[in-house]
Design goal:
14 strands, Rossmann fold, 39% helix, alpha/beta, globular
Length: 355
C-alpha cells in the first residue's frame, strides 16, 4: 500500500530538483560584455578605479569593451588619451603610486612595446625596490596575440615576454567567466597585472551562471582550471587555444583517446601543481600556445615538469604545439599555417601517444 505513495513522493522530489536547477540560470555572455561588466562593477565599487587609453571614452573603445562607461562615469573616470603609450602608461603608473587604481588599455599589446619601460622598470620593480612600501596597483589590459590579417607588427603573443619579469602578474583568460572573474581580481590586486585578452574572442558568447554574473564573483589569480577530464594525455593551453584543445579532445574522444584539458588562466604565477597532478594521472603532456616556440610558455612548462616530481610519471617526452618561428605573414593561408590548428593538436597527441 505504501509503494505508490513512495513513488509519488519521489516524483515530487524530482520535480523540485528540476525546478531548482532551472532557477540556476545560464545565459550567454560574450567575452566583450564580461570584461565590460567587470570594469563597470569595479568602477562602481571603488572610486579610486579609473580607465584610460586611446578611444576608450567617447568612442566606447576600439573593440567596444568600454561601451557605455564614459556616459555613466564621465571624463574623470573614463579618460581618452593621445596616441602615446609611453605617455599615458607613465601617467597610469604614477597615479597607481599616488593611491589610485588605474586600468590602462593598450589598443593592442603590440603597442605596449612603446611603454615597456613604464611597465617593467616603473611598475613591476617598484614594490620590491621600495621594500614593500610602495605598491603599484595597476592593470595593463588589451588584445594580445594574432588577430586576422594584421601581419607581423600586430601579431605577437606577449605572454612569455611579460611572464619573464618578476614583479608582474600575467593573466590570459579564455572564456567569459575567466574574463570577468580574473579582471575583477586583477583590479583589486595590489600588484601590477598584465591582462592579455584576445581580439578574436571578444564577440564569442559563453554560458555564464547567475553566480558568475554577480558583483561578488572573482577568480583567484594563479589558479588553473581543468576544463575537461581525461586519462590518456594532458593538454595545457591558455587564451583562445583552450578552445582549440577542447575541439581536438572531442575529435580524439571518438577514437577512444581521452584528453584532459587544462586552462592555465594565469601565466605568472603559474599553477604548476595543477599541471603536475594531471601529468601524474595521464603520463603524457602536450602544451599548446599561439606564441613563438623559443623561450615560450610551453618551454617553461616543459622545464618545470622536468625539474619536478611529475617527470618520473612521463611515458613519453613532452610535445609543444606553438606558432611558427617566423614573423607573422599577411596572407591568410600563410597566417593559418603559422598558428596552431586543431589538426596540429590532434597530430601531436597521437605522436606523443605513439599512435
Amino acid at each position: 500500500m505504501n509503494c505508490p505513495l513512495r513513488v509519488s513522493a519521489g516524483s515530487v522530489l524530482m520535480a523540485v530538483v528540476v525546478v531548482f536547477l532551472q532557477t540556476v540560470k545560464q545565459s550567454p555572455v560574450t567575452v566583450r560584455d564580461a570584461l565590460n561588466q567587470a570594469m563597470d562593477e569595479e568602477l562602481e565599487r571603488d572610486e579610486r578605479v579609473f580607465l584610460l587609453g586611446e578611444e576608450v571614452a567617447q568612442y566606447d573603445g576600439a573593440y567596444k569593451v568600454s561601451r557605455g562607461l564614459w556616459k555613466k562615469y564621465g571624463d574623470k573616470r573614463i579618460i581618452d588619451t593621445p596616441i602615446s603609450e609611453m605617455g599615458f602608461a607613465g601617467i597610469a603608473v604614477g597615479a597607481a603610486m599616488a593611491g589610485l587604481r588605474p586600468i590602462c588599455e593598450f589598443m593592442t599589446f603590440n603597442f605596449s612595446m612603446q611603454a615597456i619601460d613604464q611597465v617593467i622598470n616603473s611598475a613591476a620593480k617598484t614594490y620590491y625596490m621600495s621594500a614593500g612600501l610602495q605598491p603599484v596597483p595597476i592593470v595593463f589590459r588589451g588584445p594580445n596575440g594574432a588577430s586576422a590579417g594584421v601581419a607581423a607588427q600586430h601579431s605577437q603573443c606577449f605572454a612569455a615576454w611579460y611572464a619573464h619579469c618578476p614583479g608582474l602578474k600575467v593573466v590570459s583568460p579564455w572564456n567569459s567567466e575567466d574574463a570577468k572573474g580574473l579582471l575583477k581580481a586583477a583590479i583589486r590586486d595590489n600588484n601590477p597585472v598584465v591582462f592579455l585578452e584576445n581580439e578574436l574572442m571578444y564577440g564569442v558568447p559563453f554560458e555564464m551562471s547567475e553566480e558568475c554574473q554577480s558583483k561578488d564573483f572573482t577568480i583567484p589569480i594563479g589558479k588553473a582550471k581543468v576544463e575537461r577530464q581525461g586519462n590518456h594525455v594532458t593538454l595545457v593551453s591558455h587564451s583562445r587555444f583552450v578552445g582549440h584543445c577542447l575541439d581536438a579532445a572531442v575529435v580524439l574522444a571518438k577514437e577512444g583517446i581521452e584528453c584532459e584539458v587544462i586552462n592555465m588562466r594565469t601565466i605568472r604565477p603559474m599553477d604548476v601543481e595543477a599541471i603536475e597532478a594531471s601529468v601524474m594521472k595521464t603520463n603524457h603532456l602536450v602544451t599548446v600556445e599561439g606564441g613563438w616556440p623559443q623561450f615560450g610558455v610551453g618551454a617553461e612548462i616543459c622545464a618545470r615538469i622536468m625539474e619536478g616530481p611529475a617527470f618520473n610519471y612521463l611515458d613519453a617526452p613532452v610535445t609543444r604545439v606553438t606558432g611558427v618561428d617566423i614573423p607573422m605573414p599577411y596572407a591568410k593561408i600563410l597566417e593559418d599555417n603559422s598558428l596552431p590548428q586543431i589538426k596540429d593538436i590532434i597530430f601531436s597527441v597521437k605522436k606523443t601517444l605513439n599512435i
